[in-house]
Amino acid sequence: MKLFKSNRHGSLEIKLTKRVIFLWSVPANGHLNPTLCYANELIKALPDMNCSKLVFYSGKSFKDLILNLPNNRGKDLIEFRDYELEKNTGTENLLKLMMNFNTKPGTLFRVFQCYENSIKLGAKHLFKRLIQDMHNDQPVLILYDQALFFPKIACELYSKKYHCPKPLHVSYVTTFMCARGIYPYWSDLEKMGLLGSNLNSRQKMRTFLTLANDFFHYLFTYYKTLWWDLEFSFLDLVLRCEMPLSQVQMIDQNMNLVFVMPEVQPRLEYFQNKENIKFVGPSVDETVRSNISKKKLDMDKYIERIEEFLAANLINNNGVKSTFMRCESTGDNFKKYHKPIIYVSMGTVFNNENSHLFRTLIEGCKKFRDNYAIIISTGDEKTYEKYADLYTNDNILLIPHTPQVEILKRAHLFITHAGMNSVSEAMNYGVPIICIPLSGDQPFVAWRVADELGMGIRLQPDESLTVEKVVSTVSKILTNSSYRLKAQSLSKLSQNYAGHKTAVDFTIQALRDHESKMLI
Asked: What pTM was computed for the model?
């Protein structure tokens, strides 16, 4: 509880207000999965922070998952708030709104256009609402996904409008920590294909000019938005606002909680001397993750289909029923009775943009259907309907959604888009991977875990990806034990971390330190 005084009609009035925490999330599964594990632990620690509620911002399709977190059941510790992006823009996919350019592999990733789009999106649809909410609720802490580029601007706007200090804000990072001048370098972007593929001198110059143009557009939009749209004065821009380049820096001045093992973070040595960056490890909580792939009733339906499929693929049918989610069967016990699983999932954001990709993967996996049970998650119903007619054999299951953690605990190979969430889960359970990065941070992750750490093989989802290449790559992973051994060694490291719990400890400490300074 928080006490403050106000003078009303000449008398002293004591008001009692509830202390709340805001959480601004990215409404996309890959970002939300580790966030929910963190939030579930966070609400258990609300009394330690003298807070009564976590106000969770996301997209409305995730509302049930958020409100039904295990530690919130029957307690009403979470208040859900919709960004209302779908109402205002036609989609709640915040990542797609920020990346409204060609995101296909082998094309230039226009990062400054992301920043520009984020500012425009905030000014048009988010800032006014978020600032008013901050004024009404006076959050003692704002937690935000680092992939959002507008939170620090929103806090600055709130401070200016209401002539008050900015609330404490802390970022959490669901992928590798990036910072200007540390990671990635220009050479990193080039080798990952994020500047284009096989560029000659003229094309490299065109790429440089495009990025330079995007950068100056970003600068113009930044200052124009703050001065013209949000009515900052020139003095405000010079003296009060964080400069636009500091937005590019991405590191929060207060604290950054990185849900990555330090052992896999690129250029760790350059980050380790920064007190405000904490590598807490993967945020994977089986209790939470088993229930957040889809609404529970829908997921029960999909689990039933998976169990029926696996029951048809028993190695030894001695009256043993498929034990998947409805018992405490461990992965090892499961493998005694079932064919090894090859699991394919290309995420939920960019999964339906490449028809060539799914067709090639399905045809390639068909070659292994006699000895392996193949489960292919399409990520949504629309993509499922598009490809449902491509399989006819009982040993291949095409399905819209899966309980991914439960499958990975029992999988022999994982073919993935290399989203950090999926790779962290594969690493946690020691499953070798084939990475086929589609966009966003995926090329970074794929390069690191496949090319540098040796946990799998990286392929490009372009014309070079043929059925024959899929078959040869799967065969190589399955027959070369080095990939599995590397995955298992990383799994042992991963088991030492509980990122969602460690992050909460640092969050509590950050709030206590901040409030101690405010009392001085």
From this structure: 0.85
